[in-house]
Amino acid sequence: MIAKHGSYYEWTKRKEFQVGDSLMFEYDGNVNDVTQVSSRLEYQFCNSLSPKAFYNTGHDVVTLTEPVDDVLEINSDLEFKSCDTISPVALHNAGQDLIRLTKPGIRYFITSKIGHCEAGLKLRVVVRPLSKSVPKKMQLSPFDRFIKWLRDSFTPHPHH
């Protein structure tokens, strides 16, 4: 199926693409081109300054070679509940992103893939402040805790 410009967005909203699927773009190569960007934000803001790929033949076939899910960090509980992807504070799309939880507070993460957030693919993280005092239990090494457990568990107790 070849999507016309006006209906392209509506057509893609109803589609689920898989790795290995191919998309065919047919257009006038003298007037237009196709630019593949790396993220939803680059797409949303038409930022093609560092394209992932560029096509201009007018008869291009693009095969999807990697998953298209990403994780958006959003600001508020309202955005989290409504799966609002409009103004994310961060985008994580490398597939194995490390997110450091350095400040206390609530962090919200959702997927941008249509329908997946609404189906529950989202995460709310509560980051608690560091405790000023370390519990006594945590001051012992794992080995010392094991020895203490052995001693407490297998020491005979006098019967009354």
From TrEMBL:
Can you tell me which residues the record assigns to a coiled coil?
none
The residue ranges of the Phytocyanin domain are: 1-129
| Name of one Pfam family that matches | Cu_bind_like
Family matches, as Gene3D superfamilies? Cupredoxins - blue copper proteins
Question: Which protein, by its recorded name, is this?
Answer: Phytocyanin domain-containing protein
Organism name: Brassica napus
